[in-house]
Design the sequence.
């Protein structure tokens, strides 16, 4: 599967975000900074359910996650 296909696969985005949450959960057990990233993913999932702009929602989520981890480290 093409990597770009995974990123822009709107039908499976909830599965991808849930997988990200599981991966980050295991990181959060080692470092509490990552707990806020799980919150950012939940917020993005809620926004996508409300039919918010797909690209903007994911960009915002990823930027907020990066900012959270960068400040916490």
Sequence:
């Amino acid at each position: 599967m093409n990597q770009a296909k995974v990123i822009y696969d709107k039908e499976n985005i909830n599965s991808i975000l849930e997988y990200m949450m599981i991966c980050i959960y295991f990181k959060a057990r080692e470092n509490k900074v990552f707990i806020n990233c799980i919150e950012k993913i939940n917020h993005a999932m809620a926004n996508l359910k409300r039919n918010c702009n797909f690209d903007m929602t994911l960009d915002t989520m990823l930027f907020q996650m990066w900012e959270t981890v960068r400040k916490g480290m």
In short: The chain is about 75% helix and 0% strand. The mean pLDDT is 86. Residues 13 and 41 are 11 Å apart (CA to CA). The helical segments are 3-7, 13-28, 35-49, 54-72.
